[in-house]
Specification:
Residues 8-60 form the DUF397 domain. It is a single chain. The protein is 20% helix and 26% strand. It is an alpha+beta fold. It has a domain at 24-66.
Amino acid sequence: MAIPPEPRWFKSSYSGGSGTECVECAYFPHAALIRDSKSIGGPILNVRPQAWLRFLDSVRRGSPSS
């Protein structure tokens, strides 16, 4: 069985420099992983990339996600 690669986490360019309220993401072909950067050992949200992109688009437009 192949070992999956380690996630390459990155922070949003909108994250504050003070270390508060940061979200980190990692992308794979079939998943977008999201976690709280202050709790890297904590839970990780795993969603389809299309769903994450729709959510981000809704946030950018200021409208509720559907």
